[in-house]
Amino acid sequence: MLLTTTINGRKKEILIKDDDYLLDVLRKEGYLSVKRGCDTGACGLCTILLNGSPILSCSTLAARAHGKQISTIENFPKEAKTFASYMTAEGAEQCGFCSPGFTLTVIAMTKELQDPTDDEIMHYLNGNLCRCSGYISQLRAIRNFMEEIKNENC
Amino acid sequence: MKIVNTSVRKVDGVGVVTGNPAYTEDLILNNNVLTIKLLRSPHAFAKIKAIDTSIALKVPGVEAIFTHNDVPETRFTLAGQSFPEPSPYDRRILDEYVRYVGDPVAIIAAEDERAAEKAMKLIKVQYDILEPILDFEKSIDSHILIHPEEVHTNFEIGYERKRNIASKAYSEKPGVEEGFVKSDIILERTYYTQPQIHAMMETYRSYSYFDVNGRLTTVSSTQIPFHVRRHLARALELPTSKLRVIKPRVGGGFGGKQTAVCEIYSAFVTLKTGKPSKIIYNRKETHTCTTTRHEMRLDVKIGSDLEGNIKAIDINVLSNAGAYGEHAPTVTSLVSYKTFPLYDTVPMRFNANIVYSNTMNAGAFRGYGATQGTFAVESIINELAHKLNLDPTEIRMKNLVEPGEGKYITSGDIKKCIEIGKEKFNWIEKSQVREVAPNKVRAAGMAVTMQGSGIGGIDTAAATIKLGDRGDFSLMVGVTDMGQGCDTVLTQIAAEVLDVPMDKISIHSADTDLSPYDPGAYASSGTYVTGNAVIIAANKMREEILKGASKMFNTNINEIEYLGNNLKIGNNLISLEDFAQRSISFEGMNQITTTGTWGGETSPPPFIAGFAEVEVDTLTGEVEVIDYLSVVDCGTPINPNLVQVQVEGGAAQGIGLALLEDIKYDKKGKPISDSLMQYKIPSRLDCKNIRVEISNSYEKTGPFGAKSVGEVVINTPAPAIADAVYNATKVRVRKLPITSEKVLLGMFDL
Question: Is the ipTM of this complex over 0.95?
Fold first, then answer.
């Protein structure tokens, strides 16, 4: 089928097979920030935003993006870089393979939750696995990142 | 020190967080790469009688299908170890025998995954199904023989093919029998540690192609590019000069990528077809057809007087190598190597058999046997403390090593780690059992551990530095950053010695054509071994710059001062940029390149004292880690932030080992924990409060006083949590993981 969708603000028409998953289509189209960590929607690495909400692209059929807005981390250069500066300040990124999906989820969270507690942050991000960092440094980075956003909004 | 011992940001950090293409699969530029899939055995043990690929080959898009009839006869090991590898050469690319569920039967190369998978279903295999050994405790002298063929070993490792023994290990500190005679109390316990899965986020993958010069190039997510090249040369029967291995960014390894799990398949397909090819293991393959931590049964006997002075420890180990013997002779030895020196005055004996079975094969995993040894030895010391009514910290103070000149351990202080931990963890209060709510009990436990820094007397790494034409430096190393940050740490070390800002140095790692030799990232060697090589190369660079300047300016070398960005010649300053430009030009004709090579005589150990507070739900047996503190002594941290995150991450992985991670097989030997749904690694909610304290020391053989920190971090959670659970419930779980089921059933039995 012909998938008509918008990826990172650019309209696209992509010839896909009916059973293609969104992750594979995006990588084939060159959006290499989208990573595959599992095939069961269990790890959060393939997270992208569909109409602004985080979804798992490894278990979403590409056809479901028809007429919708897809965002990968490449669509948020400013936020991603700012968040990256907090992540790197903590040394929290380690292997970095889970970082793009994780960062997108954090960006979505900051738009969705007002002043979340640590528990709320951990709950929101619990589907994003990381095998390197032990998560604590990421929480430090998120807190600092949210602090900056808060100050910007003041 | 300006740059060393500061928490500078990682050189590649922003790039990876913002999603820059960097990993193996991102770098496949060719759109027509063959996709490789492996047909895998459904049987735990079988001999292939016949394979018919004729129908499968007719599937449109299928390029080739290879079976054991098409591959070289040569046997090899895939263990990432310096040559000559101690591991037995017990594999072929494809064999007529399959020895575990998932062992490859055929290699399918097709234009895409759909075609490959369609073809896979159409390959007809006739198996002679054999009775497997699924329980490694029944392996020795079984009527079933797992490796009927003759197997080469490079030296004596205790290999006894006819008894299913892949290797044996023995070591002794004399006085064990006398020690037991002198003991007032003797405990004998049996502990089991499970096979753990690395579960790195980037699964195994490689991509191969012929370059324009006809050399077979393999891009791989590996910890061991030089070892991979050597493995490929042997397996494919090619000269090493025809092979090149490139390692891009690696998305986690933890020792899994110290075994060349997948590279032979893409290299073989490209060799046979002439076409570029890729193989990417899916999560299921990664969890069922790669390597695991060695599963072990550890029988431990300890003798002590009534004051807690330990008189003897005797350890007998049965270790499961699985179907193939990668790392079989070496991993299990660390049960003794990393526990004997900690209790250096205690007579100790260690005896191990490492056996084959028809399960997934074992390999290297962060901690590398020290983890298993620590669980057993620290657990029995905790049990002894309870018997003697002593505080677990006290009994350790009586028996732990005092470092000193001429001893195996010359620097650092594990007792200091305990002192710091007791205070920062609030041990005295937390080690008391407390009911915090109805059916919720809290208590604490602790354990200590050590590891090494590189493999003393064996592993040797090199670093090369090039002065660029505009006064910048290229640092080339063969060690592999898989997230731990060694690219950054090595750049810090080079910048410190060369006295320039870090952004003057670009690091390149690793490409077997361009990088100087390095055994790779394992045995906690990056900072210590390669770091020392970087120091040598950087000091040589300073000397060569001075020599070059002396010649160029016709000045005595003693009158030139190296100031990093500038050279002071008499009263004149000349910038390094200017000097470099002139040096490389017609005027100087001198491309300055220096190499340092270093290997350690010893392997100085980092230490950790680990403290765990748990909350147990007495109605369900559920265990939650409320607080975890690691007090680490890794010498002088080159980058304290990176040390801290290494320690936090290792503790999390250790908590996974302690509480969650378990491979389950069905009755026929098929692994059923084949996804991240079934095989649970810790999530954010399992790691609420992991803390780190750094106890600084100075290791004089280390770069700027540093020791390693990569592996030691994982060893203490399991014994500390096990003891905390015992304190809370009086249930002693000696078989990891400590699941709610075991705790609850244990409470019923009390």
Answer: yes
